[in-house]
Structures are given as structure tokens and as C-alpha cells.
Amino acid sequence: MESKVKKWKLLASRPGPKLPLFDVELKEMENPRNKSHLEVLVLKSPDTINVVAVTGENELVLVEQFRFGIQESLLELPAGLMDGEEDPLSAAKRELYEETGYQSSSWIATGVTYLNPAYVNNKCFHFLAIDARKVSKPDLDESEDISVHLISDFSVKQTIESNLIVDAIGVAALHKASQHL
């Protein structure tokens, strides 16, 4: 589809405060429709990955973590930031292993989505790990406190409809994985 929306003109840019996980950029933009000016905030972050990991017994491997934005713990897919020049599949394998102690020899790249392109610049690469198996204890970072959960008789439809996974990027990953399950 051809875009009917014109690109906004960048008038000025300056760095914002330093934050964990994000670099902040403040931009002054000009609306091409009416020439009005708008200051926007862009959070710059490395790309991310997440993994729908399913065991040979059809169990979904999930992690439970406390999330500061909502002040609650959530069940989520194993996920994380890509390190430097790390390729997405290597990051997915590393994060699955570090957060859960699981590995897989059968991986499918299921797609890419943007986390929130209104103000965040990064994207998320989604993967499906088939016949995942536990090979060790999780190897957590200093800043992580994670509990691993296995969901028996896994189905994408039931996982989404029961609100077991409620973060938008996790729901997107499950939807993308459903084409391969």
C-alpha cells in the first residue's frame, strides 16, 4: 500500500536524560500538513527477541517476573535485549537458556513486530523453539528475579483467551507462532 502521509521534517534534536535500557532523544518536528511544530520524545533501545518455547510434551515454557510499570508479576515468554551485533537467533537461544535453562535444536523465526513505534525505535524478533528441553538451572543476570513455569496441554488460542499472557508483544509472538504449531 502506498503511503498517503508525508514524512515529518526534523527541525532540531537533542539528547534527553540517561535512563537504564534507553537513550532518550527529544526532537522538534514539523507537521507537513499545517507546518505546526511538535516536540516528541523517542526512546532508543537495542532490538529485542522473545521465544515461544514448547517442550516435546506440549508444555509452554514461561517466565514469571515482577514488572515495575504495573507493580505486578506477570507470566511472559522468555525474552530479552540483543547484545551489540548479536544476531536475533543467537540472542533468542541465549535468552531462553539464561532465563529458563532450556535449549532447543529446532528453531523457527516467526516474524518481527515493533514494540511501540509511537515513541520507541526498536523492534522485536519472534522465535518458536520446538522440543525445548531443560539442560540446566537458569543463569540469571544480577537484575533478574525469574521463576520458570510450564503450562501443560499448550494451545495458542487457550493461552490468549484465558489471559495467561497479557503483554501485547507476547500475544503478538503467540499469534505469529500459531502458524507453525
What is the CATH topology assignment of the largest domain?
Nucleoside Triphosphate Pyrophosphohydrolase
Contiguous helical run count: 3
Q: Please provide the ordered H/E string of secondary-structure elements.
A: EEEEEEEHEEEEHH
Largest sheet: 8 strands, mixed
Rg calc = 19 Å
SS-derived structural category: alpha+beta
Residue-averaged pLDDT, rounded?
96
Distance between the termini: 30 Å
Poorly predicted tracts of residues: none
Q: What is the CATH superfamily of the largest domain?
A: Nucleoside Triphosphate Pyrophosphohydrolase
How many distinct beta strands? 11
Helical residue percent band: 10-25%
Please state the second-level CATH architecture of the largest domain. Alpha-Beta Complex
Under CATH at level 1, the class of the largest domain stands as Alpha Beta
What amount of the residues lies in strands? 35-45%
Number of domains: 2
Shape: elongated
